[in-house]
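wait is this the right file?? whatever heres the structure
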């Protein structure tokens, strides 16, 4: 065996070990990044789901209000029906605003 073939085989062996170590470290590092990414995205996913639920609730209230408006327009003028629905929503908003300004009462936990 010549010196050149020995040097080539040992450099192939060294490259193989280096690539194996790099691949193992790369896999470990990519797994760590994937875990970190999953942990960081959890709050964002929760916020997105909450925003979607809020949007769906708003659309439900909108279409329910339109249905009440159209239902009332069968027995009165459409303008008055719309005004009644608007006044009901204004009262709901005022009550919610007043409730938000009240101090919250904390109850002692029974342990």
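ok assuming it is, sequence goes like this
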């Amino acid at each position: 065996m010549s010196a050149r073939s020995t040097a080539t085989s040992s450099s192939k062996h060294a490259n193989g070990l280096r690539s194996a170590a790099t691949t193992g470290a790369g896999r470990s590092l990519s797994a760590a990044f994937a875990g970190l990414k999953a942990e960081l995205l959890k709050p964002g996913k929760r916020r997105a789901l909450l925003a979607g639920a809020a949007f769906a609730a708003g659309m439900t209230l909108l279409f329910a209000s339109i249905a009440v408006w159209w239902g009332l327009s069968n027995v009165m003028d459409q303008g008055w029906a719309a005004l009644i629905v608007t006044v009901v929503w204004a009262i709901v908003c005022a009550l919610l605003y007043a409730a938000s300004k009240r101090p919250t009462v904390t109850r002692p936990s029974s342990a």
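The chain is about 85% helix and 0% strand. so i think its the right one actually
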